[in-house]
Amino acid sequence: MATCVRCGRELAAFSFGEQTRVCPSCSQMAQNHQPEIPSPAPGRPAAGQIAYQFPVTTVLLGINVLVFVAMVLRGVSVSHPDNQALLNWGADFGPLSLGTQPWRILTSNYVHIGFVHILVNMWALWQLGRVSERIFRRWPYFVIYTASGISGSLLSLLHDPMIVSAGASGALFGLVGALIAALYLGKLPFPKPARDSLLKNLVWVAVINLGLGASIPGIDNAGHVGGLVMGLALGAIIGPHLMEEPAPRAFYNRLVLIAAAFLLVGFWSLVKQKRGYVADIEKARQAIGKGHADEAIRELQIAIARDPNNIEALNMLAQAYLGKNDSTNAQHTLQRVIQLDPDNIGAEFVLGLTYADRHQYDDARRVFADLTRQQPKNSEAWALLGASLDGLNREEEAINAYTKATSLNPKNSEVYRELGLAQAKLNRFQDAVSSLLKAAQLDPNNTDIQKDLADVYTVMGNTAAAAEATHRAQQLSHSNSNPVGPKQ
């Protein structure tokens, strides 16, 4: 039996008069919604002959392109802009967006991360925007686009507030979601096969792009999901009423605006509640930069109370404690960082230094031994392992570690000096002199190296060399305490 090409209803098996493939209901709807075409003014074409200009889509596309061109003209990389450049132009970033700069959740939708990014998004905007602007009309379409972009920014902040994100993808996914809802729920004047085909294509576009976003590192897929969900919600509100008379349609247009505002305010409150602590981290960062360790510690303790596993906040807290010379609390904090992230080399390094500073040489040795296993070509780790072993009076092992450090970095005068002192402790005076002379060669103005040489020469009984080294040390001491400068 034949079916209606618009709604899919079965048609009557027999009919009189003109044969049609449209059911009576759809035929009546089409008659009720014939557009009024005003009479053209003399010399002007009829309204039906004028191509639709898509003003909102054109304006949105123009803003995105102008922002990108302005970024490039101000020196931002065309292909790989760095995070700081993106932040300068309004990208989304939790510590700022959830702090004193909430406008970033909107402006980030007009900032793009390189030429390929904006090219792909603007092509998608042109394709989706023209269809959306025709179906939803101008300002409801703009509301859906903007609300979806903001929703994408908010879900991105909720998922990971510490990444820098930008781009129109959330808004574009919102258009996809709204079109899916409108095509599925609305009685749009499309033949049913065409409508079903478009609906199927849009669903596949959403599924494929979400799959790519989940599989490719560096893509903020949370922003895509946030935009899609908002678009589906707003499309579901307005979709069933797109073909109604102007008055009820205007009511649902207003309802879309109210719903968008309500959903975004609620979503914003949720994100602030869950992730607002990252603004405290930013305040702490600024306080550390100004040397205000106590203020930084207060802000970071607030942030960590809400997110105890935030590694960045813990690292900064350890830094603030070290700024107060509070090695005990710094150690506890760094131990927590390493417990959460065993591969955090930087935290291990600082922890080892705090152990050495407090003469906990065995703990320091354990840390630096682990670092040399993880990074066998790290000369500084070998040097600090040597210093830890030296503190434990394990001179032979210390000499081996220092020697390894000098082989990796032959220009480090301080390591040669420590090697020479360790050799002198084992009465290997010739080796000690050789190492200290190498240190003096690398750093000829170092008074302490000359004093060490004088001490070793004295123990060896070489009084002339000891006297010469002592004299050299005195000269350097006098020269360093009276630097030559310009006359006032």
Draw up the topology in text.
Blueprint: H1 24-32, H2 55-73, H3 83-88, H4 94-97, H5 104-107, H6 115-136, H7 138-159, H8 169-185, H9 192-215, H10 221-238, H11 246-275, H12 277-289, H13 293-306, H14 311-323, H15 327-340, H16 345-357, H17 361-374, H18 379-391, H19 395-408, H20 413-425, H21 429-442, H22 447-460, H23 463-481
Q: What does this entry look like structurally?
A:
The protein is an all-alpha fold. The chain folds into 3 domains: 1-29, no CATH class; 55-275, Rhomboid-like fold, CATH 1.20.1540; 278-481, Tetratricopeptide repeat domain (Serine Threonine Protein Phosphatase 5, Tetratricopeptide repeat). Helix content is 70%, strand content 0%. The chain has 23 helices and no strands. The longest helix is centred in the middle third of the chain and has 30 residues, at 246-275.
Features:
488 residues; elongated; 23 helices; Rhomboid-like fold; Serine Threonine Protein Phosphatase 5, Tetratricopeptide repeat
Short description, anyone?
By secondary structure, the chain is mainly alpha-helical. The chain has helices spanning 24-32, 55-73, 83-88, 94-97, 104-107, 115-136, 138-159, 169-185, 192-215, 221-238, 246-275, 277-289, 293-306, 311-323, 327-340, 345-357, 361-374, 379-391, 395-408, 413-425, 429-442, 447-460, 463-481.
